[in-house]
Amino acid sequence: GEDVEQSLFLSVREGDSSVINCTYTDSSSTYLYWYKQEPGAGLQLLTYIFSNMDMKQDQRLTVLLNKKDKHLSLRIADTQTGDSAIYFCAEMWDSGGGADGLTFGKGTHLIIQP
Amino acid sequence: GAVVSQHPSRVICKSGTSVKIECRSLDFQATTMFWYRQFPKQSLMLMATSNEGSKATYEQGVEKDKFLINHASLTLSTLTVTSAHPEDSSFYICSARLPPRGGTYNEQFFGPGTRLTVL
Question: Region A52-65: what's the mean pLDDT?
Fold first, then answer.
């Protein structure tokens, strides 16, 4: 079945850029998402990219998609303490018959060092 | 690794009936479970946060009388869609969170989802 992989932890210094990576296996993916989860809260959609795009930028966030390698990354510029959270990569795939599925990675815990 | 199951995986019902969806953490205890809804071609929407032994916390715009959540044990949360209508047709996903172990990192595991179709 579909599989989405992420590293569990990433530690960066405040002010540096953070790059969170994700790989997926399903070639029928349509959309790819990045969600943020702060302590005690549910998922918050950060950004998403269509599978026919290579890059999307939204303020401090840059999403890069390498469809050939099935690799997705999220870059956070000028990382701040408020960026400390768990970041989930998710892949929407077409299961056929008009039904879409969604597969999540296990999440990457972004730790900010002062 | 930790596994979260949902049952049923797919359900078709008539308008006006109620449907119950179960979310189970199979090999760990989850004090907190989340229920999400995915609209076709759109991203996930958080519906409610379910804590074992207490009332669920619903997100703004989610009707608590229509979407009943019960988190009766540390391994089971249920979502009941009451008096379902075609606009309730959607993909419902639950997630279960491990209790914190020392540090602040809380691993979260997602169920495979339940496809609800209301005719």
Answer: 94
From residue A84, give the alpha-carbon distance in Å to each of A18, A31, A46, B13, B106. Answer: 11, 25, 14, 42, 13
Cβ separation B105–A86 shorter than 8 A: yes
Q: Is A35 in Cβ contact with B41 (below 8 Å)?
A: no
Residue whose token pair is 């619903």: B58
Environment class of B45 (CB within 10 Å of its CB; exposed 0-12, middle 13-18, buried 19+): middle
Q: Is residue B60 within 8 angstroms of chain A, CB to CB? A: no
Between positions 86 and 115 of B, the ones with CB within 8 A of A are: 91, 93, 95, 104-110, 113, 115
Instruction: Report the b/e string of B100-110 with b at 16+ CB within 10 A.
Output: eeeeebbbbbb
- Cross-strand pairs, B46: B36
- C-alpha distances in Å from residue A40, one per residue of A51, B7, B49, B100: 31, 26, 10, 11
Q: Do A103 and A83 touch, CB atoms closer than 8 A? A: no
Within 59-98 of A, beta carbons closer than 8 Å to B belong to 86, 88, 90
pLDDT in tens, chain B (119 residues): 678 899 998 999 999 999 999 999 998 888 889 899 987 666 678 899 888 888 898 988 999 999 999 988 889 999 999 999 999 998 899 988 776 665 445 566 888 889 899 99
